[in-house]
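User: Write out your own:

AI:
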Amino acid sequence: MSSHARRHARQQAGASTFLVAWRDGQPVGSCEVRWDGCAAPEVQAAHGDCPEINGLGVWPQSFRSQGIGTALIRAAEELARKRGGKRIGLGVDENNLRAAALYSRLGYHPAAPYLDRWSYQDVEGVTHQVADACTFMIKEFHLDSS
């Protein structure tokens, strides 16, 4: 099953909400809010009750640094608040310093290191396993928080 099919299945089951950012009628970014939290065992053990913003992306690359990712994060935070959430988290690859800086500016703090394990299939049909070193970051909601 493709990653898109898995996301669709989770949303259909009520386990997530998929958000899409639009500009001039074209999708320019998306993310999934996973209500059951990050799938990584390390994060589940420490923060299993924390919803996760997953798969955040903005495209094409020329649209980055224009507030689209921030708008998606803010929309995810608002959904979590409306569901009675007290916090939300997201993962960042240890080599993605630009994203980590953005998340810090938005009020996220490092909470747990983990390995993001995923796989992909190449053009020859060979499946490759990948494990990226990441940090799970959490933002606690406060009454006056935005």
In short: The first strand starts at residue 16 and ends at 23. The domain at 3-140 is CATH 3.40.630.30 (Aminopeptidase). The beta strands are 16-23, 26-34, 52-58, 87-93, 109-121, 127-140. DSSP finds four helices and six strands in the chain.
